[in-house]
Amino acid sequence: MASFFSLTALLGGLLIGLAAMIYFLFLGRVMGVSGILSTTSSKHGFTLWRALFIVGILISPWIYSVFAEVPVAELTNNKALLIIGGLLVGLGAGLSSGCTSGHSICGIARLSPSSIVVTMIFMVAGGVSVFIVKHLLGL
Predict the structure, then answer these.
(1) Engineering a disulfide at 107: which of 6, 14, 112, 122 sits with its beta carbon 3.0 to 4.6 angstroms away?
(2) CA geometry: angle at 64 spanning 61 and 65, to 5°?
(3) Alpha-carbon distance 55 to 101, whole Å?
(4) At CA 41, angle to CA 38 and CA 43, rounded to 5?
């Protein structure tokens, strides 16, 4: 790794921040993906902005690929590990009352003490998980 600077990462971060700001200004809410997804099929009902948000998430890798090469993600073939990982992510989002996008992007920007603590827990848990899976289990 010759340099830590990435123009695409910088632009992506700026776009995410801009989207969170616009979302908050127009809807008065924190832009958290888990909250938006969970309210799409609940008593809140279907709304155009929720559908567009979800479509935007789904097509963003294709849009990115127009401008740059999409990094190849390394996934395991171990179905049990994928299921456990997915359940743990869902459990963590449920226990922390939100996901990384809501807490780490929007919550920290609002200087929310709980979001700062939850983000630190997300980061430590992620680091511990990588250490266990890569170095202890050798997967």
Answers:
(1) 112
(2) 85
(3) 17
(4) 95
Both tokens assigned to 73: 């993600």
List the structure tokens of 40: 């799409």
Residue located via tokens 């401008």: 67
Q: What is the C-alpha separation between 51 and 37, in angstroms, rounded?
A: 9
> Tokens at residue 60, please?
């963003």
Tens of pLDDT, residue by residue over 36-77, are 777 776 666 677 878 888 898 889 888 888 887 887 777 778
Q: Is residue 12 scored above 60 in pLDDT?
A: yes
Q: What is the DSSP string of 72-88?
A: PP---S-HHHHHHHHHH
Q: Give dist(CA 53, CA 31) in Å, integer.
A: 10
| Token duo for residue 43 | 């008593």
Distance CA 9, CA 17 (A): 12
Cβ atoms 106, 32 nearer than 8 A? yes
SS3 139: coil
- What DSSP assignment string belongs to 29-40? S---HHHHHHHH
